[in-house]
């Protein structure tokens, strides 16, 4: 199997390459220290020759095995011209009746020799792919290194979009999730002329997301003040149009809902809601709730006969304090309290020097208390967990999750429309940069939900993976 | 299939640049800036860089076995120290960009035409080769069993009925760009941000001095992020030797806490490498301190 060197191989060489071996030679044992022996020199030469032969070998494929595609720089996307192969199960997306690949997916498939990408009718080299497809608006070189590394190991790797991750509240309600890869990709490209990031993530404001996805035919009515309530899907000409992208984010913990049932609701009027919570130009004035409060049943809940009996029994067994002669002798509350204090002291003999001061013992040993609560009482440091306070953190540009990673053994059943929960999420950084601080870790863990966040640290050719796990010190409490 | 089309109008013809540089005595290393990262694509460049004792790091999939991470292929990424050393040794200006040749539309059409013609020629040649291949296979079969008449008939039929489908043609997916790049617009050349190195200038200068000194002594160096150091130091080519040292660059007046020294020593002993604290001095020399974990004697 002759290696093919150089970009312009002869047709005879290409033809011969079809029956090339696909094995790489195994590397032998290394030497410890260089001496000037011939043996070492020979082995080095052999290793180097093998190295150059492997490095200079070019990819040769049968035309029929290659999927043809075109690079579309305006959309930063690769469009397939011939039907996709096996890779379609885990990569790419459909839109406007055509098949597309993300730039990093296309580059990876080029490196595997599965796809040939053309631009202006000429095939792109791998070098062209690296230079054209990798950028700050797509995927950076370091992120692509991690992407490629994981894909070569067999993982399924998709881009992470924080806006498509449900909030903890939405997850609690078990709301269905929107899997709209197509809309997201093409949507982003069209908004390239507008702000890059119009989605406040942790910085959750009251306003619904402004639609950044106007179609090319957007009229002036859509600009400026006229905010649309529902996110219009950018692909208006699609027959299967989705009604609304579920990408609006509401921070329910900070939107106060009026509590009409509470006894404290004295006024018969409700103030008008924040106009930013309302659709369009709807204006709502002050609301008279007198009618509603009348409708609300404010009566006490009637107990069943069994419950009533139970309450009566309890009352009967309780000792009636009014029958106590000493209590009857008290003329006012102050005296009664003094009587109680005396009784307490006498009865149990609580040492005065401990209990009659400003600073009293933390707990009265005569009071029953579970061990766990007691330990909490005497603890000086409160234990916390990783996500505490995380929802209040505002997002930053320094740290963000890039990819969702799904396990290789799920490939056979993998569905792009419903990938399920990822195995982990990747955040790409390098040893040149700072170590993630607690704030960054909290922020990313919160964004990620219950999926562990892995930091892929790129060091030139090497990638190291780190993850931070929450850990609780065990408390020896056995109820 | 890329012929060197003459540059119609352009910023700088790559050929011209090469000529000028060769005349001034330097050798050309074609480094392309992808994400502002120094990447080498041509085998010749990789060889010349290795010949200077610079290892770099391969980032791409290996064409022969693309779905594994043990051995990677082109491009080669250079360390910032390697790039700087090359720049110091050559005449090539440090900020050479991917040479973009502005080719007018006529040029692009010509290239497409040439490409398609080359593909057609390749197809025709491969058809001929395929037919010969089949014939010789049949002939071999015939010599081993000469009485088999069906083989004779097949041989005759072959000439007339043989067809080589286009889909069977072998096609090359080039790694490096061939000849001159034809990107029509300078705008098309995407430049993303290489993550801004948080390292301050004195730190970078210290690293470079240590790198240059060790390289000058014949050692080979690669990056050592996951070993908690700056460089891994090999006594010879990494293809054949294990690294002996983990070099950690520390400035002479920097005070180290004992815990840091313990941590890095512990790391070194776990991976059976000696930790080398390297401090460039003012006279251009570098002071080396090795850490050895030993017990009480």
From TrEMBL, chain A:
Keyword tRNA processing in record: yes
Every tRNA-splicing endonuclease subunit Sen54 N-terminal domain range: 53-119
This protein's UniProt keywords: tRNA processing
Residue ranges with Low complexity bias: 210-221
One family name in Pfam for this protein: tRNA_int_end_N2
Source organism, top-level taxon: Eukaryota
Segments for region (Disordered): 182-233
GO cellular component, one term: tRNA-intron endonuclease complex
Compositionally biased residues, Basic and acidic residues: 191-202
Family: Belongs to the SEN54 family.
PANTHER family: TRNA-SPLICING ENDONUCLEASE SUBUNIT SEN54
Name of the featured protein: TSEN54 tRNA splicing endonuclease subunit
Species whose genome carries this gene: Sander lucioperca (Pike-perch)
From TrEMBL, chain B:
E.C. designation(s): 4.6.1.16
GO biological process, one term: mRNA processing
Sequence ranges assigned to domain TSEN34 N-terminal in this UniProt record: 32-91
UniProt keyword tRNA processing present: yes
Catalytic residues (positions): 234, 242, 273
Localization, UniProt: Nucleus, Nucleolus
Molecular function GO labels: nucleic acid binding; tRNA-intron lyase activity
PANTHER family for this protein: TRNA-SPLICING ENDONUCLEASE SUBUNIT SEN34, TRNA-SPLICING ENDONUCLEASE SUBUNIT SEN34-RELATED
Family statement drawn from the similarity comment of this UniProt entry: Belongs to the tRNA-intron endonuclease family.
Subunit architecture: tRNA splicing endonuclease is a heterotetramer composed of TSEN2, TSEN15, TSEN34/LENG5 and TSEN54. tRNA splicing endonuclease complex also contains proteins of the pre-mRNA 3'-end processing machinery such as CLP1, CPSF1, CPSF4 and CSTF2.
Stated name of the protein: tRNA-splicing endonuclease subunit Sen34
Organism: Sander lucioperca
Gene it is expressed from: tsen34
